[in-house]
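User: My instructor asked us to take a sequence, write out its structure as tokens, and then describe one feature of it. I'm not sure where to start. Here is the sequence I was given:
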Amino acid sequence: MTDGTELYTVGQIARRTGLSVHTIRFWSDSGLIAPTDRSAGGYRLYDAAAVARFDLVRALRELGVGLEAVRRILARQATVAEVAEVHAQALDAEIKALKLRRAVLRTIAKRGGTTEETTMTHKLAHLSAAQRQQVIDEFIEKTFSGIALDDDAEVVATWMRELPDELPDDPAPGQVDAWIELTDLVGGEDFRQRLRQIALTGASPVASRHGYALRSLTLEHANRAMAELIAPESAEGRSILNQIIEPGMPAGERDELHRWLETVADARVERYWQLIAVLNGREPGPSAMPAFTWLIAAIRAHG
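Assistant: Let's start with the prediction itself. The structure tokens for your sequence are:
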């Protein structure tokens, strides 16, 4: 203390930094910041550089940096920038986990399920990206096993696998709910068998002749019929039907078309695509099922 350097007591540092006396002594006892000197009474004294170190340690601790990392910084074994980058990455992971937890809780609150369903919801939401993809891949492989898919069907099967690499950093409850609903959907044997039927009928002549054009005509005219409250079995309904399907279509072909429509027009298949869209952050398109339901009823009513 003879060189004129100003020294500070623990109490003075506490007032300057806002740290508690206990914390200052703990950091000092831990070897983070050693006293510069001691008073005649044996009390610890610290110079301005030590006070600055207390300020640094306080800032790092408030940012959540652990004491061991702080020790490495003070010992110049790591820079503040290096530690900050590692800690920022850890915080990113923690924030992501918290956001997922929040979305899961909101999903559980919305679904109002049992304790078993709550446990399953939590487990499904925390599957890794690879595990989620495996669920869908196994579903597709089992569904189309033994079926020779044409080029168009192969493309569709590929699209059906299109899950995002992972849920978004801030998943909406709807995305967590979509994944849970999708998992439930692909676990149903009835749904798998319906997709096999669709794949098998996709190669039929009637599907080749009417598939793409029929959808466009149905959405245009059947949606208009529903908007105008035209019943499919009415005379007006017959007129609308004739705008979708050629009135001169042979009866056998019309029956085949009717059977094909009843196979492929399945709300579960449409829901699958809607859920895939939600998981990939896209807005699902409007449902086509009401229009096709109207068309099927019209064909049934008018033969």
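For the description part of your assignment, you could build on this observation: The mean pLDDT is 79. Try explaining in your own words what that tells you about the chain.
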